[in-house]
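Example 3.2
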Amino acid sequence: MQILAIDFGTKNIGLAWCDTGIGAVFPFGVIKSEDKKKAKAELEKFIVKEHIERLVVGLPYSMDGSENKNTERIREFADSLDTKIKIDFFDEKFSSGQADRSPGGASRDEKSAMIILESYLAKNKK
């Protein structure tokens, strides 16, 4: 299964990809998110082009586990995507901090998406 994870920020959407048959998570680029309509269209095209079967969207829950304005903004964006694939939301708390401490040449946004996807896969391992 082709899974794409996104770390949705106010300026960038970090992407990470995994084919569950391979099992490894890879950085997969960044989409500028300042123009939400352009970002949405670009992400929808990307999902079709890359044959993505599931989308994992990081949600920054509050420390008490509740949703906030940021989680609402991200949910609205994800729910507005014109795609038939399953969208799973996953707690991304601390992913940016982990990304800052992670080595490698990927961008901070890609690293955050990778951490979200790796955590999602570990939690949903069968």
